[in-house]
Amino acid sequence: MTKKPATARSVAELFRVQIASGELQPGDKLPSTKQIAAEFDVSELLVYRAIAQLKESGHVVARQGAGAFVRVYNPLIWNPGEYERGERRDDPVTNTDDWKAQVRTQGREPEQDTPRVSIEPAPKDIASWLQLEPGTPVVARRRLRLVDGEPCQLADSWFPVEIAEGTPLMEERDVTMKGGVLAATGNPQHRLRDELSIRMPTSAEIERLDLQKLPGTPVCQHVRIGYGANDGPVRVMVTIAPGDRNRIVYELEITR
């Protein structure tokens, strides 16, 4: 039987198999274009196309003048179930909240940029989560979370104006208060609802998370809706977590 000639797709798939099996480890350099071309008896142009496919699928990254390397993953283990329940770890003195505390337990360094705060018409999805009419003014508080100096998550929160107005939530600074800002300002959350979906990032998310050089990276959209004493929503927080930088874990207790 005549052996089928190699294609860019088949060459790329072989490398994907080697990466999945561990034959090629994160950070390993791929052979040179000339070496791959000789091994498969194909043109260097075909090899360029194969590597382009590997870059598009997120399996390798190219370094100018150095070659192509297997993509390195060092994800944050992110357990949203630990937040806002039980004994919180908020420390206003060190400006440490639940998220920062969890990052530090992994031996890594958390950071948040200066929040951007605005009052704006509620988009349709935000309005639905807050049980408001679309276009109702809401307070938006947008943050970028970094781990070890690299963008890790977008953490944007929306509040009904009457909940946030006159509180530190309107201040463009990293606010930490014992028990959480909502509880400390008289609007504690009594119930939480989480919604998770996996999708490709928007153009704005790609820019904010610096994903331009990492095409093909999906994100997890984690939505947490907090309900107050009358079971009305007091906040919705939308966290956008790139799939290569986060491993999401939930631990649930079983009661009998």
Low-confidence stretches: none
Radius of gyration: 23 Å
The pLDDT mean sits at 90
What is the overall number of helices?
8
Largest sheet: 7 strands, antiparallel
Q: Any idea what the shape is?
A: elongated
Helix content: 10-25%
Please report the distance between the alpha carbons of the first and last residues. 63 Å
Structural class: alpha+beta
Strand content: 25-35%
Order of helices and strands: HHHEEEHEEHEEHHEHEEE
Quick one: how many beta strands?
Answer: 11
Structure, described:
With 256 residues, this protein is of the alpha+beta class. The protein is 24% helix and 29% strand. It has 8 helices and 11 strands. β1 (60-63) and β2 (67-70) form a beta hairpin.
Q: Outline of this structure?
A:
With about 260 residues, the protein is α+β, with helices and mostly antiparallel strands. The protein has helices spanning about 10-20, 35-40, 45-55, 100-105, 125-130, 160-165, 180-185, 205-210, and strands at about 60-65, 65-70, 75-80, 110, 115-120, 135-145, 150-160, 190-200, 220-225, 235-240, 245-250. It has eight helices and eleven strands.
